[in-house]
Records
---
Amino acid sequence: MGRVPHVAIVGAGRMGQGIALAFIHGGLSVALIDMKVREPDDERLYSERVRLDLDRELCAKIGLGRITAEQARESAGRVSIFGREDGLQALSDADVVFESVPEVMTAKAAALSLISDVARHDIPVASTTSSFLVTELATLIEGPQRFLNAHWLNPADLMPLVEISRSEQTDDAVIDDVVGLLERVGKVPVVCSASAGYIVPRIQALAMNEAARMVEEGVASAEDIDKAVRVGFGLRFAVLGLVEFIDWGGGDILYYASRYLAGMLGDRFEAPEVIAANMASSRNGLRDGQGFYTYDPDTVGDYKSLRMREFSVLLDEVGLSPEYGAALAPVPEKTRRG
C-alpha cells in the first residue's frame, strides 16, 4: 500500500467518525458510509448531522491548537459522507475498508456481507469491534485471509494505540499493510492473537474493577484512588510498560508480593506460572541481565538513563517535578490543617 490509499469506513457513528478524523488529519481522503437503510429525507438529515459532528470536532482541534482553521477546512473537504446505496461506488473504489457498525452480530454480518459483495477481494478489511473475536467475524466475509480486527481506543482520532488482532488465516502481508497505513497517520499499532479483551481492555477491566472494589470496601475515596492512579500508576506506565516494569522491580519481588496479596485479598492476586519459571531460571529482570527482556551489560546503563530522562521530561510536562528546596518555602495558608 505504498501509494496514497482510498479509505472506506462502513458505519458512520461515533467510532466511524473518530477513525475518519484520524485519517483526514493524516492527509488521506475517506468515504464514510452509513450502513442503515433510511428514507431519503432521513438520510439527508443524518448526513448533515454527521457533517456537523465532524465540523465540531475539527473546531475543537483548532481550540486545542492542534490544527489551524485552514487545516480544518482542508480536513473537512477530505471526507465524503454517503448513505448505504450512494456509497457503493466509494466502497468499490476503496483500497482498505474499516467496518464500524454497532456491536450487534446481525449488524456486523450485514456490513461484512455488503463489503464482500461490493469491495475488491484483494484489499484488507478490518472490523473495529471491541466485543467479537476476529475468528468469529472472519467466517462472515469472503476471503478471511484478508480480514483482521483493528481495535481503536476512544477518542480514536487522538489516542495513538490501535490493537490489531489476527486469526490463523490472516495473511502476514495484510497485517503489514494495515500496520503501515496506521503508522502513516501517526498511530502506534500492536498485534495480538484472537483473545477476548485484546491487550488494553483486558488489563483495564481488572484495574477498573479493583478500583471500584476499593471504593466499595472503604479502602480510600474515589478521589484519592483516582489521584493515586494519575500521579503514580499512570505516570510510571507512560514511560515503562507493565512487563518492562516487572523486570525493573524484579520478578521475584512480584512473586512474593503477589503471594502476600493473594493470602490477604484473594486468589485473583496469584502470580502466573511464568513468574515462578523465570525465578527458577534466574531471569528476574535487570539485575540478572535477563527477564522478560534481555539486557546487554554494555548498554543497560544507557537504557536506564534514557528511561529516567523520559520520566523526568514527563514530570516537567505535567508540572509534578519536585522543586529544589521546596520545603523551605512559606506554607500557603490554604494548605495548613488544624
Note: The mean pLDDT is 96.
---
Amino acid sequence: MKSSKRNILRYTLLILWCTISVSAVNAQQKPNIIYVLVDDLGYGDLGVLFQNQKDKNLPALVTPNLDAMARAGAVLSQQYANAPVCAPSRASLLTGVNQGNAHIRDNQFDKALENNHTMATVLKDAGYATVAIGKWGLQGTDEKQRPNWPAHPLKRGFDQYYGYTRHADGHEHYPVEGVYRGKKEVWNNYTEVSADLQKCYTTDLWTAKAKDYIIGFEKQHQAKQPFFMYLAYDAPHAVLELPTQSYPKGGGLNGGLQWLNQKGNMINSASGTVDSYTHPDYANATYDDDRDPGTPNKPWPDTYKRYATAVRRLDDAIGDIRALLSDLKIADNTIIVFTSDNGPSIESYLPKQYVPNHPTFFESYGPFDGIKRDCWEGGLRMPSVIAWPKRIPAGKVVNIPSMLSDWLPTFADAAGAPIPARVTGVSLVPSLTNAGKQIAGNVYVEYFESGSTPAFSQFEANHASRKRNQMQMVRIGDLVGVRYNIKSAADDFEIYNVVKDPKQTNNLAKNTDLSGLQNQFRNRALQLRMMDQEAKRPYDSIAIPGVQMPKSTKPGLKWSFFPGNFHYVSVSNQSKPAASGVVQSLATVTAKNKGMIQYQTLFKIDKKGTYTFRLSTAGKAFVKLHQINLLDADFGYTSGKEIEKTVSLEAGYHPLSIYALKGTNNSLKLEFKGEDGVWHSLSGENAVY
C-alpha cells in the first residue's frame, strides 16, 4: 500500500510539471532597489509623520524632500526595528531574520554577520548588481584580519563596497580631520582610501558616491541589469558635526553633490571650513521655551541647531538622489526606501560647553515614549517611507504591523525571486501595491541593556527611569505586550492597545482580567525564538508550549510541490502548488524535473521533556518548529551531513514545516529522540494534520 502511494506521488509530480519560472520577472521589469538606512533618526523626526503637526511655537524639524517622497509613495506607519540598537537591528534587516532567531543580538557591535542568505545574496542570485555604501559595523571583531574581515560586505553578497567598515568609525563624520573622535578609515572594497578625503563630511561623501555609482552603472548597462544599493548613513547619530557649506545647488545628474574623484577634492563640498555650516532655517531659530506667549522666545541651543542641520542634510540627499533617478529616466521602476535603525538617542559626543542632546527638544520619538535601547514604541517605531511609482499608489499609508526584517522578502518578491526559508519576515508587496494577499507577519523583539529609560518628564511616570535589563516586546493584532527587567518566563507582560493608545498609558493587564491573553503572549514569545549562548535570557530553559489541538486530525504530513530551478531552499511565492497530497513519512521523491517540496504537520509530543532533532539530505533542506529556525541544511550545507538541534518541548502539538529541494533521488531524513535516547522517524505515528 505504501509503495503504491509513493508511486502515485512520483507520477503526480511528473504529470503536473509546469513551466512556471521562479524568476518570471525579466531583467527589464525587475526594479532597481535603493535601501537608505540612517542612524538613530526617530519616528517623530520626519515632518510628514509628526513635525508638521506640531505647535508652530515649538522647535520643529523640516524634511521637505522626505515629505514629498511620502506623498509620491507610501508611509509605513507601524513598522518596527528588530532591535532598539544598531548592530542587531542591521543584522536582522540584512538577513531577514528576527531577533529570536538571529546570530547577532543585544550589543554585539562589530560581530561578524553570519555567512548565510542576505539581501545582497538573494538579489545577486536574481541577477542584480549589488553595492553597499556607508556604515557597515558587522565585519567581525578580529582586527588581525583587517582588511579581510570574515564578514566584509564583499563576503556577504555585495559586488562593491565603499564606506566605514567598523561600527565606531561612524561616530565621526570627518574621517581625515577627526574633529571630535579622531581620524577614521574609509574603505573602497579592501583598500583604505581616507588619505584622499580631506574635508569630506560623510553624509555628503556617501551621497556623492551613491550618485556616482548609479550614473556609472546606468551608463554601462543601459537598464539591461537592475542594481541593489544598500546606502547606510552614519548620521544623525553622534557626533553632531556640521557640513562645510550649504548643500550644492540643484540636484540630480548635473546639480547637487558630485563625485569629482580628485585627491583632496573628492566631492564638490570638500572645501571651506569643516564643522561650520548651520542651515539658515535654524541658524537664528527661536522657540517658546516656557510655553508662555507673554515671555520672549529663546534661541535654539547650538546642539539642536546641529541635529536639525544633520537631519536636513539627509533630507537634501534624498531629494538629490530622487532627482538623479528622474534625470536618468529610471525613477518609475526604482524602489527607494528610507528608514532608520532604531529610535532617537541621547548621544552627541560634543564638548562640555554644549548642552546635552535630548530627543525631548524636537520630540524625536513622536507620539510615543522611549528612545534608542528602549522596547517602548519610541525605541522601536521606524520612520519608514517608500516610493515605487510604477507599482505603489501615491499617498498610500500602510497600517499593518511590520518589521525591518520584512524588507528582504519584500525585495525578493518585487524581483521575482524566491524567499529563503530561513527568513522570518514576510513580503509587504501586497500591502504596498494593493495586489495579492498579504500574509500576516510576526512582530517580536528581545534585547538586553543594563541602563534605564531616561527620566524625561515628557514620558509616562511608569516608563521614565524604568530599569531595562532583559526586555521583550511581542505584538498580537493591535496589542503590544512589553516586559522590562525580566526575571523569569512567568513575569507578566504589560499589555497596551498601541493603535488607540500609542503612548502606552493604559496597561490593560492591570485593568482587565486578561489571564488568557497573558498566556497567549507568554506562549507566543517562546514559540518565536531559539536560545543563543552569547545572549542568554532568563526564559531560555523554559519548554516551548504547543498549539491548541485541532477539532479533528488525521495522521500524516501534508505536502505541496512547486516546480522550478531553485538555487536555495525557499518559501514559495507561487500562489498554488503544482501538486499536493498527504504522506505518512518523508519518503524519497523522484521527480523528473527540479522543484521544491514543502511538508506541513503537527508534531505530537506525549511527554514534556528535551527533544533532539536530526536532519540529513542529499540535497538541501530547512526545518522550522513553530516560528523557530530549527535546522538549516541550506546555505553552505554539505550534502549528506547530519545536523541536529535540541529543544525543550511541552506535551502537545507543535507545528513543523519542512522545506526541501527536490531533484532526482534527493533523499531527506528527519529523526527525533526524547530523553530515552531512542531515535524515531517522523511519520503518521507522531505527526498529524
Note: The chain has three domains: 2-21+548-688, 32-441, 445-527.
---
Amino acid sequence: MVNTIDGERRRHELSEAVWRLILRDGLGAASVRGVAQEAGLATGSVRHFFPTQSDLLVFAMRELSATVTARVQATSDSHEPAAIIDRAIAIFAELLPLTDRTQAEFTAYLEFMIRARVDPALQPVARQTVEDVRGLVITVLTDLQQLRAISGAVDPRSEAVRLHALIDGLTVQLLIAPTTLSRKDAHQTLADSLRALEQHR
C-alpha cells in the first residue's frame, strides 16, 4: 500500500514538473531528461514510471483533465444559491482561462493539443478530451431544457457544437492575444451566449 501511494505521489509530482516546463520553456522541453532535471530526479527514476516522453505527456494530460473535471463537478454540486442559467454559466466558465491558475492549465492544454496533431500516441487522449467537453456541454444544455430554463426549440447537440467552438475560440484569444480580449469580456460573451437561449415565459 505504501509503495502504491508513493508511486501515485511521484507520478503526480512528475506531471507537475511537466506543466512547469511547458509553461516556462514550451512542450519541447518536457523530455524525460528535462522532466527529471526539473523534478530533481535521475533520468532512470522517471523512466521507471514513464519509459517515453509520450507516456509522460499522456499521463500529465490526463491529470490536467481530471483537475478540470473535478473543478467543474464542484461547481455543479455547489450549494450556493444561484439561478439555473447562472449555474450553467459558472460550469462553462471553468472551461475558460479566467484566472492565473486556469491560464496556466489551459496554456499547457493548448500546447498538448497542438503536439497531438503530429504525435499518434497523444491523439486518443486528445480526442477523448474533446469528446468529454462536448458531452458536458450537451448534458448541461439538455438539463437546462428539461428544467425549462432554455427554449424547447433549442437542439442541445447542435447548440453544443456552437458553444464548444465559442469556448475554444475564447480560450485561444485569451492565451494568444490577451490584449484583444479581457477575461471579463470573455466571461460576458459566454454568459450572453447562454442567456440568449433562455426560455421566455
Note: The chain has two domains: 1-51, 54-195.
